[in-house]
Amino acid sequence: MTDIAITINGTAWEGTVEPRLSLADLIRGELTLTGTHLGCEHGVCGACNVEVDGVPMRSCLMPAAAADGCAITTIEGQYGEMAERLRAAFTTHHALQCGFCTSGMMATALDILRRGLGRDEATIRRELAGNICRCTGYQGIVAAILHVAQETTP
Amino acid sequence: MDSHHDSNLSNSSQVGQPFTRLEDRRHLAGQGGFVADLRLPGIRDVAFLRSSMAHARLGPIAVPADAPAGAVWTAEAFHGLVKPIRAVLDRPAYRPSDQPVMAEGTVRHVGEIVAAVLADNRALAEDLAERLEPAYDPLPAITDPEQALLPESAPLHPGWADNVYMTMGRTTGDFDAMVARADVHVTRHLRMERVAAMPLETRGCVARFDRGSGVLTLWIATQRPHLIRTMLAEQLTGIEERDIRVIAPDVGGGFGGKSNLYPEEILLAAMAMRLPHPVRWIEDRWEHMVSASHSRQHVQTITAHATKEGELLAVDVRFLVDGGAYAMRTSTPAVEANMASSVLPGPYKFQAYRFEATTVATNKTPVGPFRGVGRPAAVFAMERIMEETAAAIGMDPVEFRLRNMIQPEEHPFTTISGLVYDSGDYPSLLTKAAQSIRAPGKGDAPANIAIGIGFGCYTEQTAHGAQEWHRRGSPFVYGFEAARVRIDPSGGVLVSTGIQSHGQGLETSLAQIAGDVLGVSYDRVRVVHGDTELCPYGMGTVASRSLVMAGGAVEGACQRLAAKIRRIAAHNLDCAADDVLLAGGEAQGPGGSIPLDAVARIAYLELQKLPLDVEPALDILYCYRPPVETGAYSSGVHAAKVAVDLDSGHVKILDFVVAEDCGRVINPLIVDGQIAGGVAQGIGQALLEEFQYDDQGQPTKVTLADYLVPGAPELVNVRIIHQETLSPFTVHGAKGLGEGGAIGPPAAVANAVSDALRQFGVDVRRVPIRPEDLWEALRP
Ligand code: FES
Ligand code: FES
């Protein structure tokens, strides 16, 4: 067992975790933040993406113990202006159907926008390569990211 | 946000609007409630031990001595508690296979359940499951549908003489005469490989038995909560349907894969009834790959007979489908080949038709429905042969198709296979799609790239009723949908319905329909679905029927409620009920108006203002059964433009156009989303997705890293052209459209690649189209 201290959505949390516990299982289990979803548990689908120290990470592959000292933001904690714009754009452009991929998509999309890569379709599509959506064909997701990038670039 | 149009609504202002979805807010906040998100006190987890062998005799299962009492449940533990699953089809040629809820004596596919293990959490349950040692005595595995038909392949099921679930065939028209008249005879042997719905959320089930009330509650990621409940009551002993409640919470995609009755659901129910705590099983992706239903896997031979002037005279087709190890309930594996043979004619007319449809058992995961059912494969066969026949005659493929299409004025049209088309303008869809995809684009391709254009034309039977389901031999006829509409004393509208929405946006579309009739904004309407206790009985969301059937039910219930509201308002406004208009959240009479909430208050709490001959409360149940039950036919033409890299065989989609007609569009945003999502799955099937098995029956693609679903870089923005030919048979003139997107792409992409490579004498015979196959075929 390992003692860890993390910041989750801005709040400090300390606890003891099994070495084999994934960050996703900690988030969804003890922390009851079920907005983070598991689509494959082998690092391909991106449904489990959360922000770890400002970077999107596969929470299914990352051991909770490895997150010691990190600041983690899940969909439930994404409040900034960019996140709110993105939420509005996801709705306007119908970027979600079943909603299962959505929290992971939001984490990746925010990262794309922050890195200034949201201005052309081909780049957005390439950057989304690590997130699977089985419902939408990605059309609305790409449009939503483009929309926010255009809105926020002078 | 364009979702608020509150104050100045008039009738019919909401149907047809691209309103944003009411579902989105909870998902965007991370507040969706999927089955794995449910938290119940005392819950314990189940992991299944699944067969590692494709075909074997199963001996005793050795349990470690330190396993806690009650942790391991093998088949004996369920004796007398559950019955094997039997999927019936009322057709003489069909032979059912019993699907054991847990394997006993024999295992017939990798992934079949051998034991259940119960522990405090999933990880501990898996730890113990891994230490169980079942004794397997391997048997030869049948891994290919053609192998299944060989005389040396022993029957997989007791009492069977061979491995055929069902075979049927028919010849319509004067076949020999048409063949004799034809100038060209073009044959192709084709394969469409095995794929799966592959929703991003895997399956899952939570079961809790309440000893006080005797009620068993199951939360299941399913598309059909009511039918699952009916079937569970048949499968379980010691409980009645009345005492079972099935809740389908937020479901993370289904596409047909979550419409079957699965053994896990029965096992969890039986376990919960014997345990003092709730139990949970959340499928992992490996389990999903080997035990959730697979689909398609056709071996086809098709021949077209045509004149040199371009008249299609006759078609001869043979479908052979690999149905997997067991017949899943309720569709049975035969649904795929049977449907393919009946829909093959698509938008075309010809004089004679001969088909044979055969479904066989193999040692592979059972086959069930997946978006399109039979149609992607039928359209693949038909459109490939249309393309090749046009080439053989030397005619433009669009012209050849146009020449043989059913004309709009011929509706209602009975196809040579006996389907009754209600309406549609297929030539115009094809003309529009062709103009759009052929519009001059960028200049010449580099030397090592070949560009091609291809089409896939289809019709899609949707929202068919009892007569059609009965004709197919379905034990349940999907004949109606129900809606209960209530207005509470404060004026809020609550619609509950028996369908289930798992991404289709029905909470929004149905709210738009209700909002129009009741004169309130759609975002004041709450739609509840997926709970057998809260919602009226219904068939669930399958077969592209929900919007038309549940929409008809909601419309009917709201009309009846509106009539009642008008009477109450008229009484209080001192006017005739016919003069009252419901709009803008009010009942408006010639001389004044009453807000809807005031009318509702009268109906419940101020009965002194209610006419004596009006029943109190605003609460109506209405069941919609379509007046004509042969279905409303959507139609579409998919057009693909591809670039084939001649050095690598890699295919890139350059452009994709969908010209489609689903009748009246209720919400264009949602309709376009359904089309784009379906096309993505169809392109996956055209270029990427397939299961494979080795000769021992071991699946070789069991992760999302080997079974490739399309990602954003592989796809393009689908350009959609709408045409609205209203159905005369449905309430809004709407037709279903959930499946259409997935039907056309395999045909359109295969034809585009064939067009690109025609100069090299290469044409596509198999989907998915693999770079290595093209590379091999293009080698000098
Ligand atoms: S669940 Fe982590 S990548 Fe799929
Ligand atoms: S919305 Fe269902 S997986 Fe993306």
Automatic annotation (TrEMBL), chain A:
Keyword Hydrolase: no
Gene3D superfamilies (UniProt xref): 3.10.20.30, [2Fe-2S]-binding domain
PROSITE patterns linked to this entry: 2FE2S_FER_1, 2FE2S_FER_2
Limits of the 2Fe-2S ferredoxin-type domain: 2-78
Molecular function GO labels: 2 iron, 2 sulfur cluster binding; metal ion binding; oxidoreductase activity
Classification via InterPro entries: 2Fe-2S-bd (IPR002888), 2Fe-2S-bd_dom_sf (IPR036884), 2Fe-2S_ferredoxin-like_sf (IPR036010), 2Fe-2S_ferredoxin-type (IPR001041), 2Fe2S_fd_BS (IPR006058), Beta-grasp_dom_sf (IPR012675), Diverse_Oxidoreductases (IPR051452)
Alphabetical UniProt keywords: 2Fe-2S, Iron, Iron-sulfur, Metal-binding, Oxidoreductase
Coiled coil (residue ranges): none
Name the UniProt record assigns to this protein: (2Fe-2S)-binding protein
Organism: Rhodovarius crocodyli
UniProtKB/TrEMBL annotation, chain B:
Gene3D superfamilies: Aldehyde oxidase/xanthine dehydrogenase, a/b hammerhead, Aldehyde oxidase/xanthine dehydrogenase, molybdopterin binding domain
Domain spans labelled Aldehyde oxidase/xanthine dehydrogenase a/b hammerhead: 29-140
InterPro entries: Ald_Oxase/Xan_DH_a/b, Ald_Oxase/Xan_DH_a/b_sf, Ald_Oxase/xanthine_DH-like, AldOxase/xan_DH_MoCoBD1, AldOxase/xan_DH_MoCoBD2, AldOxase/xan_DH_Mopterin-bd_sf
Pfam families xref list: Ald_Xan_dh_C, MoCoBD_1, MoCoBD_2
Keyword Oxidoreductase: yes
GO molecular function ontology, one term from the record: iron ion binding
Highest taxon of the lineage: Bacteria
Keyword terms, alphabetized: Molybdenum, Oxidoreductase
Keyword Ligase appears in the UniProt entry: no
Protein name: Aldehyde oxidase/xanthine dehydrogenase a/b hammerhead domain-containing protein
UniProt source species: Rhodovarius crocodyli
Lineage of origin: Bacteria, Pseudomonadati, Pseudomonadota, Alphaproteobacteria, Acetobacterales
